[in-house]
Amino acid sequence: MPSPTRSKLDLTVFITVLGAGALFLALGVSANALATVSVALSGLYGAWTGTRSTSQRQPERDQPGD
To answer: What is the pTM of this model?
Structure first.
């Protein structure tokens, strides 16, 4: 279970990135450039927090035969 401090940090980062994205769009940054930067930053944040993508498959364990 995540700690309350960790949840607050995740929420703070999410709102900050969302606000920055809205600001950049308002300033005229293209959506394609913003999407590229967003993907890169989310990868860096995931590496910093030690989280892994859920799309990675877990290795299957050998099941004993009947």
So the answer is: 0.56
Distance CA 55, CA 33 (A): 24
Q: What is the largest CA-CA distance in the chain?
A: 64
DSSP string, 2-65: --HHHHHHHHHHHHHHHHHHHHHHHTT--HHHHHHHHHHHHHHHHHHHT---TTSPPPPPPPPP
CA dist 51 to 6, 54, 56, Å?
12, 9, 11
Tokens encoding 37: 């930067």
For the chain, what is the radius of gyration of the CA atoms?
A: 18
> Model confidence over 5-55: pLDDT tens digits?
778 888 888 888 888 889 999 999 998 998 898 888 888 888 877 765 555
